[in-house]
Amino acid sequence: MIWVLFIVCAITATEASLSKCQQLQASANSGLIGAYVPQCKETGEFEEKQCWGSTGYCWCVDEDGKEILGTKIRGSPDCSRRKAALTLCQMMQAIIVNVPGWCGPPSCKADGSFDEVQCCASNGECYCVDKKGKELEGTRQQGRPTCERHLSECEEARLKAHSNSLRVGMFVPECLEDGSYNPVQCWPSTGYCWCVDEGGVKVPGSDVRFKRPTC
Question: Which cysteines are joined by disulfide bonds (predicted)?
Answer without folding.
Answer: 21-40, 51-58, 89-108, 119-126, 186-193, 195-215
